Amino acid sequence: MDPTVPDLGIDIPEISQIAFVVRDIEDGMDRFGGVLGLGPWEIYRFEPPTLTDTTYRGEPHDYSMILALTFVGETMIELIEPLEGPSIYTEHLDEHGEGLHHVACFAFDDTEAVVREFEEAGMPVLQSGVFGEVPYWYFDTQEQLNGVVFETATNLEAMQEPDRTYPE
Amino acid sequence: MDPTVPDLGIDIPEISQIAFVVRDIEDGMDRFGGVLGLGPWEIYRFEPPTLTDTTYRGEPHDYSMILALTFVGETMIELIEPLEGPSIYTEHLDEHGEGLHHVACFAFDDTEAVVREFEEAGMPVLQSGVFGEVPYWYFDTQEQLNGVVFETATNLEAMQEPDRTYPE
């Protein structure tokens, strides 16, 4: 075992979500729906006033996005179109174009403890926010996880109803 | 619905696998194990003579790789280190570095029919091969699926024993 690799001792119970950045959410839903049969989608605008406490690289920072969510089996598929402000999504579009962006686990017993473990192991929060009553955190794991961004969130049972669904 | 988007009419039952390209398989296992607690890993060398019938962009083509597989819940996690020959993995390392590479479904009722549907819809096989008795196909879906490569395979119950496991 390479002694330079952090050892958090966390136990990830599931991959809850796989997320893709797209330039246009309607186009993304049409393409994933047409080719892979994904949908129907629940669509959320992540923006103020419902989106609060947004941070980016450790500082308060305004950004917003539109999300489309569906399930394939037990796995949540998320499409993300960035709206206002620089974010890890616009960074991805600038550097790589559209595509796979992050994986997430929403099933930790103590999510706040997991956030502390990442920070203490040198993987600080890269971007975060609170949507309604649902806090989420992305970690700066690209160096430690071979290029992969990891997200967690908690209290998803308090997620509000979507703004709309597609197809309606 | 955008009429230029292919409509295959397939119904994807699950995301069977999420795959990451890494430069060094041991490093990848150490990192995903240390940070996210993934493992133990089953390791396979995908190379001749067990690997046969390899193609790349429609032509016979030699390439090889080493894989490490583990499960997180129901989702198979795959790390891929390319060995010999240009491949879609070396392309990814050259263009994007390490990171998320593709998603796969191994649970279609009629996988050969799915392969034909992709080809007829203008998403030809990008890379393929047969490992022992397990054929697999990657499709050229990056234009139609917002940058995402999709894979399928069949007969996974005939997969041979791994070359080794890690930790042993």
Automatic annotation (TrEMBL), chains A, B:
List the Gene3D superfamilies.
2,3-Dihydroxybiphenyl 1,2-Dioxygenase, domain 1
**PROSITE patterns on file:** VOC
Indicate the segments forming the VOC domain, all copies: 14-155
Asked whether the keyword Zinc is assigned, the reply is no
Entry keywords, A to Z: Lyase
Coiled-coil residues: none
Molecular functions (GO terms): lyase activity
What InterPro entries does the entry give? Glyas_Bleomycin-R_OHBP_Dase, VOC_core
Q: What is this protein called?
A: Lactoylglutathione lyase
| Organism name | Salinigranum rubrum
